[in-house]
Amino acid sequence: SSCPKRSSTTVHIHNCCTTCYAINTSADSFDYKSFFAKVGLTSKSPDDIKKAFAIIDQDKSGFIEEDELKLFLQNFSASARVLTDKETKAFMKAGDTDGDGKIGADEFTALVKP
Ligand SMILES: [Ca+2]
User: Fold this and answer.
1) pTM for the complete prediction?
2) Which of 7, 46, 49, 113 has the highest CB neighbour count under 10 A?
3) CB 112 within 8 A of CB 49
């Protein structure tokens, strides 16, 4: 089987199978815990997790806002789908521990390494 092409800006922490996972998760079935484990983020150093965070934080605001979270999977695979509103809200709720409506680097790290 062939691997989908990735853009040079995608997070290079995954292998072909995780790319396929990012593409193939069907609507409302995204589970951040299993995704982080599958792409190998959970075993990365805190520095590497912060690097991934910096890529997901596309406008470099220091936070992952809801619109950026929606495009989360596309950071891992350019051809991945956007998250549904339901998935985005559940993901945000899980990561936003201080309730300010966005996910900071420390919150993201805590989400990846609970
Ligand atoms: Ca941002």
Assistant:
1) 0.81
2) 49
3) yes
Taking the centre of ligand 1 as the mean of its atom positions, its distance from the CA of residue 1, in whole angstroms, is 35
Distance between Cα 103 and ligand 1 center (Å):
9
- Find the domain containing 31 and state its range: 16-112
Whether residue 59 is annotated as binding a ligand: the answer is yes
Residue 55 lies in a domain: yes
pLDDT number for residue 27: 81
Alpha helices in 1-114 (DSSP H): 16-24, 32-38, 46-56, 66-70, 85-95, 105-112
| CATH code where residue 96 lies | 1.10.238.10
Position 24 in a domain: yes
Q: How far is the CA of 104 from the centre of ligand 1 (A)?
A: 9
pLDDT single digits (tens) 70-93: 999 888 777 788 899 999 999 999
What is residue 28's DSSP assignment?
T
pLDDT for the residue 85: 96
Q: How far is the CA of 26 from the centre of ligand 1 (A)?
A: 25
